[in-house]
Amino acid sequence: MREFLIAPSLLSADFARLADEVRDVSAAGADWLHLDVMDNHYVPNLTVGPLVCSAIRPYTTMPFDVHLMTMPVDPLVAGFAEAGANSISFHPEASLHVHRTIELIKSHGVRAGLALNPSTPLAVLDHVMDLLDVVLVMSVNPGFGGQAFIGQTLDKLRLLRERVDTTMQRTGRPLLIEVDGGVNASNIARIAAAGADVFVAGSAVFGAPDRKQAIGRLHDELDTVAQSAGVAAL
């Protein structure tokens, strides 16, 4: 049975008080904490590195979900694994050897994910899908927070859901579909119905005056999908 997970994005937090922000969303019921790592090279903007990941690690037991929007990828993997990352996703366009990068991530005992931009075809998964733990579908173009959800992502999710289910039946291993970009209470049910398991929510959580209420509303929306599809909403 699939489980639904909410992963607030640290990119939308108040960077002047990160420890408090992390504790707040943890207490509010978040499942994962999503760290958007931007290098002002592969994408616009410059955000956090392993030092920040390590600094906030003591303030929560939530799994840290690191999304590397960087080029190159490999030099950062060990640093984030040692800083407390539980999963690390990267973009295939940013790695010269995708298979090698996946194996590097997994060698550190961390879940490995491949992140797909809106225009990246599902075909990039063809020869590595059995190795992955997460497929991160971007529903906005990476580089900025607060963007609107791209509606065509739903079609991509439906196709990916079929592939993931087939892969899990063959391998017997879990494989999560994560969606990042423009997720909020008004669209999360449609995104879940299309096939997503993990929902990165930035401003929808950190921008809310009451984070517990915001996460609760997201879960309420997911409950409607879970009841009709036999999915567990945590």
TrEMBL record:
EC number from the UniProt entry: 5.1.3.1
Pathway per the UniProt entry: Carbohydrate degradation
Binding site residues for a divalent metal cation: 34, 36, 67, 180
HAMAP family associated with the record: RPE (MF_02227)
Organism: Paraburkholderia fynbosensis
Keywords annotated in UniProt: Calvin cycle, Carbohydrate metabolism, Cobalt, Isomerase, Manganese, Metal-binding, Zinc
Entry's family note: Belongs to the ribulose-phosphate 3-epimerase family.
The protein's required cofactors: Fe(2+); Mn(2+); a divalent metal cation; Zn(2+)
Protein name: Ribulose-phosphate 3-epimerase
Cofactor: how bound: Binds 1 divalent metal cation per subunit.
Any single Pfam family the record assigns to this protein: Ribul_P_3_epim
Keyword Transmembrane helix in annotation: no
Active site, UniProt feature: 36 (proton acceptor), 180 (proton donor)
Any one GO CC term of the record: cytoplasm
InterPro entries: Aldolase_TIM, Ribul_P_3_epim, Ribul_P_3_epim-like, RibuloseP-bd_barrel
GO molecular function terms noted in the UniProt entry: D-ribulose-phosphate 3-epimerase activity; metal ion binding
UniProt: substrate binding residues: 9, 67, 143-146, 180-182, 202-203
CDD domains: RPE (cd00429)
Record bears the keyword Membrane: no
